[in-house]
Amino acid sequence: MLVLRLLLVLTALIIVLSGGMFLLTRKHTYIRFAWNVVRFDIILVLVFGVLFLLERYVLIGWKILL
């Protein structure tokens, strides 16, 4: 869970800094970079969520059956 919190804090920092750089330079590269970071973050959180569900329900359920 510590890794996810760190990931979310770093993502928020990147978004704020990219937004600030966009306001200063008006280059859309920074907005595109922020969007790519957000997409990567969403995918990573979904992967962690699936792994958490797998551990929580499937592996514990498997131990009960054995």
Strand percentage lies at under 5%
What is the end-to-end distance?
A: 29 Å
Please give the radius of gyration in angstroms: 18 Å
Shape: rod-shaped
**Largest sheet entry:** none
Tally the structural domains.
1
Q: Give the % helix.
A: over 70%
Key terms:
66 residues; mainly alpha; rod-shaped
Give a description of the structure:
The protein is built from two helices and no strands. The model has no long low-confidence stretch (mean pLDDT 91). The protein has one domain (2-65). By secondary structure, the protein is mainly α.
Question: How would the blueprint of this fold be written?
Answer:
Elements: H1 2-25, H2 28-65
Helix pairs in contact: 1-2
Write a compact overview of the structure shown.
Helices cover 94% and strands 0% of the residues. It is an all-alpha fold. The longest helix is centred in the last third of the chain and has 38 residues, at 28-65.
